[in-house]
Amino acid sequence: MTGPDVTGLWCETAVMGGAGGTGEADGGPAVRASVRLDVRDGRIERITSGAEPQPGDHILKGVVFPAAANAHSHAFHRILRGRTHDGRGDFWVWREQMYRSAAELTPETYEKLASAVFAEMVVAGFSSVAEFHYVHHQPGGAPYAEPHAMELALARAAMAAGIRLTLLDTLYLAGGIGTPLSPEQQRFGDASVQAWLERLLSLRNEIAQSFPPEMVGVGAALHSVRGVPDTDLAAVAEQLPADMPLHIHLSEQPAENEACLEAYGVTPAGLLERHGLLSGRLSAVHATHLTPGDVALLGNAGATVVMCPSTEADLADGIGPARALSDAGATIALGTDQHAVIDPWIEMRTLEHGERLGSGQRGRFSPQELLRAATDGAARSMATPIAGALAVGAVCDLMAVDPDSARTAGSKAEQFPFSATASDVTDVVIAGERVASNGTHVRLGQPGRLLTEALKEFS
Predict the structure, then answer these.
(1) d(CA 413, CA 13)
(2) 7-66+388-439 belongs to which homologous superfamily?
(3) pLDDT tens string 207-257
(4) Cα 311 to the chain's mean position, in Å?
(5) CATH 3.20.20.140 occupies which residues in the chain?
(6) Strands 425-430, 398-401: parallel, antiparallel or unpaired by DSSP?
(7) CA–CA separation, 250 and 267 (whole Å)
(8) Roughly what angle, to the nearest 10 degrees, separates helices 193-210 and 230-239?
(9) DSSP 3-state assignment of 294?
(10) Which residue of the set 72, 133, 136, 286 is catalytic?
(11) Which residues pair with 176 in a beta bridge?
(12) Is 74 a catalytic residue?
């Protein structure tokens, strides 16, 4: 029987083992009926298949998967959804609109907005997020009286939503290679790489003292090779704590590659390799415009590559070489970036659809590979635990999906990446606690209402 300190969860159907398909000898996932989980301290302590629910168990109908991990997010970009589509343009035109939104943020409005955005993520099936954060200071660049005001606002927002947060404090020192920060970029910057390192370690200490480590952790990010000068990359390689995950926007635009080649004689991936920054702890975001040599470098390093397919499509960035990267040895993870869509299922199939459009072939990524990319693909990108699997010892982060919706009816459970959407997610469990049900956040309510109220603060 379940003890007083153990929570029981009963799953009508569950995808066992790793979401990527470690449950069966042929590499496919093990789909089991009537699965009961004993959960202690937020982790799965026991799994029983073919079990009956016990009194007091939380019942999860439908098909239960590990919850998704969002490996790349800019929460404030949610302001821009549905506001940037009048007229043509490219990434650089969109960026000017993004800067105007960044200029309006305060710690108070950002906490309110991020709480709503994180609630939208939770309801969609995400239990963890890596927030690539660079809005550190006041407009103009002066620090807030509380130097970590913006960062702490994000941490409080994540706690309110119940999502696990990896807060990626971002180094942003230049407006382009050989170019100082522009006026609208001043609040992103620090006085020097040493000032950033000091602020980063201070932030990690404050977060560790104020928030549960399984819910909020600190990592590091370099905005891009455009935003961090060559000499400062060397300092990061020498001084960044070895236990911190490190992220970077890499080769998102051809113009970045051209500028890097002209200034340093190598591609952005080559520049990172030159400074010893390519490793298994690196998460390269986008990696859209790579040479075959870049693919080999990232693969040989065992880096994680975070693809954000809906954003890359929305911004007309291009289609990155995801299949080639995976074949070379890189791990593929998924993120929602600027939140044109917050939906792990759509990110999964948009990744595969991009590959199909580029190659003329179907089945570039199997459904099991897509599930892995949406879950434990992000394991090394995060400073907090992620689900990754329904397995003993794993954190109990789950999402249940309706198999009888107009979208999923008739689908095989293991092929839901090609039919399900966030609208089909009926329940989300984080650390053994139900935090969302039928599109509503248990504590915060309807994400649409939260977002409507938060967005009133922005023009």
Answers:
(1) 9
(2) Urease, subunit C, domain 1 (2.30.40.10)
(3) 999 999 999 999 999 999 999 999 999 999 999 999 999 999 999 999 999
(4) 12
(5) 68-381
(6) antiparallel
(7) 10
(8) 40
(9) helix
(10) 286
(11) 179
(12) no
Contact 410, 429 (CB under 8 A): no
Residue-wise pLDDT tens digits, 38-62: 999 999 999 999 999 999 999 999 9
Residue range 68-381 forms a domain whose CATH class is: alpha beta
Residues of the chain with CATH 2.30.40.10: 7-66+388-439
**Average confidence (pLDDT) over 184-202:** 98
Contact between 360 and 408 under an 8 Å Cβ cutoff? The reply is no
Nearest CA-CA partner of 365 in 313, 291, 417, 411: 417
3-state SS record for 194-209? HHHHHHHHHHHHHHHH
Assign 3-state DSSP to the chain and report helix, strand, coil percentages, each to 5: 40, 25, 40
3-class secondary structure, 269: helix
Reference 77, options 395, 453, 451, 418; nearest CA is: 451
H/E segment holding residue 193: helix 193-210
Q: Which residue has the tokens 């009956």?
A: 52
Residue from 337, 376, 397, 427 carrying the catalytic annotation: 337
**Residue 430 is which amino acid?**
I
**Residue 279 dihedral angles phi and psi, to the nearest 5°:** -160, 180
Give the three-class secondary structure for 337. strand
The sign one gets for the Cα dihedral 334, 339, 345, 348 is negative
Ordered DSSP codes for 403-427: TTSTTTTT--GGGGGGT--GGGEEE
CB 355 within 8 A of CB 340: no
Active site residue 402: no
The residues that bridge with 286 in the sheet, in sequence order, are 250
